[in-house]
Specification:
11 helices; three-stranded mixed sheet; globular; about 35% helix; eight-stranded mixed sheet; 2 domains; alpha/beta; GMP Synthetase, Chain A, domain 3; Rossmann fold
Length: about 350
Amino acid sequence: MTADSLKEALKQVKYPGFSRDIVSFGLVRSATFADGTAKVAVAITTSDPKVPTMLKAEIEKCLRAQPGVRDVIIELAVSAAKAPPKPRTNTLGAGQTTAGLKHSVAIASGKGGVGKSTFAVNLACALGQLLELRGRPGRVGLMDCDIYGPSVPLMMGLAGRPEIEGDSLVPLVRHGVKVMSMGFLVDDNTPVVWRGPMIMKTIQQFVQNVKWGELDVLLIDLPPGTGDAQLSLVQTLPLDGAILVTTPQTAATNIARKGGLMFQKVNVPLLGVAENMSWFEDASGTRLPLFGEGGGAATAEALGTSLLGQVPLYPEIRAGGDTGTPIVVSAPTGRPAQVFREIAGSLLERLKV
């Protein structure tokens, strides 16, 4: 019996009320085995007094069933869950408010083709997983503001029309994320041929006339550019900040920098830069910088913000978007999912959630 085999065995232990195990949740801090004694350290955050007792019993039952284990020592560190902050009321003008929405973050790129929507979808799912672990499920929303080319429904595996309650649309929910998109409101074969004022009106309705409910974070997936959609959003919803997505090459970083300057001009703080498609790893593990190197860090430095993370070019990420099951959901313990969760954790820390 080794430390690795102990952790492998602990994958049988589900966190109470969840379908995921304590290892994939990252709760097992250490595991050792010596002289027939299995010793594990586990750290959890919960306000439910029954959870530690249940978890300790399941861990002991699992470990005592392993060959060679005669004694079990469990060190269980319990931190109290944060009390939910008082809901912020966002004033939207014309008497409209969004009570219960705590933080709103724009996901922007400036240039198209850098994987912004793919990034937004996986970030939303990663945020949902982290908040679920804190006992706050269903507290993430994703608003797809790409009116002309909405791709979020495909990437989230959603179809159909939203229900209507009173004067409000009810967002569709999948993978623990509430989603609203123009893709739910038009047929697949119907192009959206609209001028600026119609786009502005739609974005206002997505904010004011969608029943988002209680949200810790609302991500807004913006279309490329610095036009009507971006200006409408900052005029309609008080943003806590924006994340810029870019690939490393100059053609993308130059436009991303302009997008960052646009947000600064309208007094929206930049929460950071995310570099997508940073490199590709071949079968031998060699990193191949297909789109250059250092662009994300240089963009962040030029804009006076930080680099949130680098997402390598994993084929599984693309496949997850095509099948409607983001990689963060389909392979939560894999390296791609870990990258997105690290970025999600950094974002929650910046937002003080």
